[in-house]
Amino acid sequence: MIGAAARPALSPRWRWGAAVAVLAAACYAPFQLVPFHVFQLTMVLVYAVALLGLNLLVGHAGQISLGHGAFFAVGAYVAAILLERWELPHLLTLPFAAALAFLLGLGLGVPAIRLRGLYLALVTLAIAIFLVPLLKRFEGMTGGSMGLTTAKPVPPAWSGLAEDQWLYFLTLAVAVAAFLLTAGLLRSRVGRALHAVRDNEAAAEVMGVRLSFYKTLAFAWSAMFAGAAGCVYTWVIGFVSPDSFTVNLSINLLAGLVVGGLGSLLGPLLGALFVMFVPSIAQSVNDAAPGVVFGLLIVVVMYVAPTGLSGLAERLIKKIPRKE
């Protein structure tokens, strides 16, 4: 059973203060950075939304998924098809992508409630593996190996923003909405039920928690966030192809979440930074074996911060002297 390691709780005052500071910095950043760095931060936000969903499943419900990249790909392709084939406005593709991913997650959650641990990991891994050849097979709809090219959102004249800045703020709006929705969900009865399932399934069932219902719901919500992230990915990149959604994406997402910190709202953001920047750092350190460098960095981070980077950050904040 997977659960978040115990970590010292911070007061709501500290949490709200940190959230406001991060949001203010996020709004200020695109006006000070070159377009490429703005693009990188935009992708961090995209991955953060996907990791929010994975965190619901792994960090809060105690399940595991090695196939989350598949839901990400579903959202990306739904957006691409609606934009390229049906010429829908960009914002309208988001609810369609999220809804279809939700339904697929709901469908996967039904058989998954009978599995746990290694068996559940293998089933979800299989989904990520067969997705790529499946996308290539339906060439008439998905574009096959060549993929689909779509137009990016055009900034309105009144905004005064460049294209990269407009994409960034669109993605930031989706990310903020996703974080607020997740925070509200975790404070609700659903969140308490998920934590009960994660901590002790037998005890949760005795207390009246319907295990099958909440496990299925966790998969569906988790897939929905991944699908929304995939949709925004299509807006940002303007291109999708099967080779962009290999099993490596699913593994990197799970690794990023563990490094960022399970069961923490800050964990997905830190994990997204890890997923975005560490592979490029590994590539620059050693062109011949970036995977080895990437793996070693994960080992080092987990040795220094067993509860993830968010747990390390909270421990450091707890050490700051405070006035009574």
From TrEMBL:
PROSITE patterns: PROKAR_LIPOPROTEIN (PS51257). Keywords: Cell membrane, Membrane, Transmembrane, Transmembrane helix. It is found in: Cell membrane. The keyword Magnesium does not apply. The keyword Nucleotidyltransferase does not apply. The chain crosses the membrane at residues 12-31, 37-58, 65-83, 89-110, 117-135, 166-186, 217-241, 253-276, 288-305. This is Branched-chain amino acid ABC transporter permease. It comes from Nonomuraea purpurea.
